[in-house]
Design brief:
Layout: E1 8-15, E2 20-21, E3 31-32, H1 37-48, E4 64-70, E5 74-84, E6 98-108, E7 115-123, H2 126-137, E8 155-162, E9 167-170, E10 176-178, E11 182-183, E12 187-190, E13 203-209, E14 221-227, E15 233-237, E16 241-245, E17 251-254
Antiparallel strand pairs: 1-7, 1-8, 2-3, 4-7, 5-6, 9-16, 10-15, 11-14, 12-15, 13-14, 16-17
Length: about 260
């Protein structure tokens, strides 16, 4: 598989449940509805076989565009997890007993079925995208993939490898129907339709981790707008967006934080 510069790898993650721990949560473990960029970079690194703490710059905002969309309606539930009480390495044996922690989980809105997230990835080095696409197509990640915590295993599926001509830049100020979250600071306003939220759109604002510094030091956190039911976001942006056109002629609009406020 040969990928030229300017292309994009689109793949999906699916699983029964997810937990992407919010950065400001304490005694109760609350979750984001979608994986933050830091989690997505960890998933890509796991597929590629990159070691922990070695990829923060290699897959960081200056080298890669990376975001995800929610493909299924979701809800959250609280379950109490019986975790080991660990304050020192020796406590891993269980000698200090357990502690019960209320944990928020993302699950499908339907009682059956799976969560599905679509991931969009491009990199300055086409070889990185080529390796990723080959591993996802073969469903052979270097390390197991999970939706947040280790027990919540996920499967991967390649949607398509898009060439540069399948990616159309959309200039700022245009009415959009975004499938991905967008930076709050990049939002110029809502679209000019009579009722942008008449189709059941539910928008929330979330402070999400965006990048790590060297050695997993503290990086950037960013405020994002997220649609919680998998519906398109009816917005106009101050930055460019992208229209992706697939081989079956279906298309969708996405936005990358790397193109917006995070780049300024």
């Amino acid at each position: 598989m040969t990928i030229r510069a300017g292309g994009m790898v689109v793949f999906e993650l699916s699983g029964r449940m997810a937990h992407f721990r919010k950065i400001h949560t304490n005694s109760s473990s609350l979750t984001y509805l979608l994986p933050p960029r830091t989690t997505l970079s960890g998933i890509v690194a796991a597929i590629l076989g990159l070691e922990r703490d070695t990829y923060y710059e290699h897959l960081g905002p200056t080298q890669a565009r990376l975001t995800a969309s929610l493909r299924t309606p979701v809800r959250t539930v609280i379950q109490t997890m019986n975790n080991l009480f660990v304050k020192s390495p020796s406590d891993v044996s269980g000698k200090s007993g357990h502690t019960q922690v209320p944990t928020e989980l993302v699950v499908p809105e339907a009682t059956s079925g799976q969560l599905v997230y679509r991931v969009y990835f491009s990199h300055a080095d086409p070889a990185v995208m080529e390796t990723l696409a080959e591993r996802v197509a073969a469903q052979m990640p270097a390390y197991p993939i999970s939706l947040g915590t280790a027990p919540m295993l996920a499967s991967i599926r390649l949607v398509e490898v898009l060439a540069a001509h399948q990616l159309e830049r959309i200039p700022p100020g245009v009415d959009l129907s975004l499938m991905t979250p967008c930076l709050m600071e990049d939002v110029m306003g809502w679209t000019d339709v009579v009722d942008p939220f008449g189709t059941g759109v539910q928008v929330i604002k979330d402070l999400m981790p965006y990048s790590f510094g060297p050695g997993r030091s503290r990086g950037w956190n960013r405020e994002f707008l997220v649609e919680r039911k998998g519906q398109p976001l009816p917005v106009r942006l101050r930055c460019q967006a992208w229209r992706l056109t697939y081989e079956n002629q279906e298309s969708e609009m996405v936005a990358f934080a790397e193109d917006g406020g995070s780049a300024r």
